[in-house]
Automatic annotation (TrEMBL):
The keyword Transmembrane applies. Keywords: Membrane, Transmembrane, Transmembrane helix. The lineage of its organism: Bacteria, Pseudomonadati, Bacteroidota, Flavobacteriia, Flavobacteriales. One of its GO terms (molecular function) is cytosine transmembrane transporter activity. This is Purine-cytosine permease. GO terms for cellular component: plasma membrane. InterPro entries: CodB.
């Protein structure tokens, strides 16, 4: 055994191979190929079966959807490349440890709690997605677009069973979760492509002009939905993963990258999942909207249900059921696992298995309520709006601490557990722009970037005045 090998073993023993509280060592760095498959698989998942149809319920036009998604996803890739990956390869720390250095342990614990709960709600919507497929053989009534409460005993039983299975698998650890997802992601991508081809055939599309006419000039939104314009599509698709890129959550991923250029691999997720898969899923819904059942809902002034299971089953049969179950499963599993890690920071005495089971229980309870899935566009916007400004604190400190003359990682240097500058900056930016959104009926994603910028600027200003010269 070489000396270098002995050192590697000792480091892995100390950090358990995850390096939660130490920079990732050189020998553990990965090439861009390691991230390409991960992002392609993670972003072609259960949410895509819902988001595509939900765009149609918002009355998007062909130009809004096809060009808007093209531009919005590009902005997301640029955010990952030039912010998240750039900072990640400089510090090589997880988001949680980086925030603890800046915010202090107490404030970071509050962030972890909020992050864990929001992760659970997101996982709950994925359990809902899988349940719509599992319930097909039992002739289960599907949740409607406006449903908030469980619609029957069968629904409750199916969700509880699906949630229990997903939680138990997630509790086995990330290796099990990630390996399964990597094997299943090609199947899911294939299913999306198959769904798109079958749907185009069912719609009688044989030319690009006919394809364009599926969305046409747009329509009025369905009852209970808001109208999405070109700018809604761009901004929403940019910030659908705001917590991950401008919110810096993916520091934990790209800290393993050899170079910041690995950030470009996120394009695989954005354009396979958030472009092709969203459009494919919307085609499935377009087919359903032509059915007598959907027309009956519309004639009664109701929005036709958006249930991924039946939509996929109608296109590609049993393979569709399997694909939807796998898509929801492969998204919910890592999400529950991440929620468990966030909770473990709050409850350090509990084992990883126990906190993951706890997260799974919360996610399963959330999955009983269809509103989290049926209102996914709004929930994802809220999720990013709440968490993204914390990323601004990291970004602004990283790029501007020298020019502003403030101390980097102040909580660590000053040995404090609560950095007031962070809480004041986040509280003011969140409160101001959430008030603007509610009071003036402004789409929440439209104020995410202003809130992010204001939080970063206020953090620098407050730090300048509140930091003590301790060096």
């Amino acid at each position: 055994m070489t000396l270098n090998h002995k050192e590697e073993v000792s480091i892995d023993d100390i950090t358990r191979g995850e390096f939660e509280r130490t920079p990732v060592p050189q020998y553990k760095l990965k090439s861009w190929k390691s991230f390409l498959g991960m992002y392609a698989g993670e972003h072609a998942a259960g949410t895509e079966f819902l988001i595509g149809p939900l765009f149609l319920t918002a009355g998007v036009s062909a130009f809004d959807l096809i060009v808007g998604l093209l531009v919005g996803n590009l902005f997301a890739v640029l955010s990952w490349r030039f912010l998240t990956a750039e900072i990640a390869v400089k510090n090589r720390l997880t988001l949680y440890f980086q925030l603890e250095k800046i915010c202090g342990k107490k404030l970071a614990t509050g962030y972890n709690l909020a992050n864990g709960i929001l992760f659970c709600f997101l996982a709950g919507s994925m359990i809902t997605v899988s349940a719509t497929a599992v319930g097909i053989p039992f002739d289960m009534p599907m949740p409607k677009l406006e449903d908030t409460l469980p619609n029957g005993v069968i629904w409750v039983i199916v969700v509880l069973v699906v949630g229990a299975v997903i939680s138990l698998i997630a509790a086995k650890g990330y290796d099990t979760v990630s390996k399964a997802a990597n094997w299943m992601s090609p199947i899911i991508v294939l299913a999306f492509l198959a769904c798109a081809i079958v749907a185009l055939n069912q719609l009688g599309v044989s030319s690009f002009s006919q394809f364009w006419d599926i969305w046409g000039e747009g329509r009025d939104p369905f009852p209970g939905q808001i109208k999405y314009t070109f700018w809604h599509v761009i901004i929403w698709s940019w910030f659908a993963n705001a917590a991950m890129h401008i919110g810096m959550s993916d520091l934990s991923v790209f800290r393993f990258a050899k170079k910041a250029s690995s950030g470009w691999t996120t394009a695989a997720g954005m354009y396979v999942g958030h472009y092709i898969a969203w459009i494919a899923a919307s085609l499935l819904y377009a087919v359903y909207l032509n059915s007598p059942e959907a027309q009956a809902f519309l004639l009664n002034g109701e929005a036709p249900p958006v249930a991924p299971g039946p939509l996929a089953y109608n296109a590609i049969g049993v393979f569709g059921i399997i694909a939807v179950v796998l898509a929801g499963w492969t998204t919910a599993n890592p999400t529950i696992y991440r929620a468990g890690l966030a909770f473990q920071a709050v409850l350090p005495k509990l084992s990883t298995v126990k906190v993951t089971i706890l997260a799974g229980m919360i996610a399963t309870i959330a999955g009983l309520f269809p509103a989290f899935a049926m209102k996914l566009l709004g929930f994802v916007a809220l999720y990013g709006f709440i968490l993204a400004p914390f990323g601004a604190v990291i970004v602004f400190e990283h790029f501007f601490h020298k020019q502003a003359g403030i101390i980097k990682n102040y909580a660590e240097v000053a040995n404090i557990k609560f950095n007031k500058s962070v809480l004041l900056a986040w509280g003011i930016s969140f409160g101001l722009f959430y008030f603007i959104s509610v009071q003036f009926d402004v789409f929440l994603s439209f104020v995410t970037l202003p809130a992010w910028l204001l939080c970063g600027i206020l953090y620098i200003i407050f730090s300048k005045f509140l930091q003590k010269n301790i060096l």
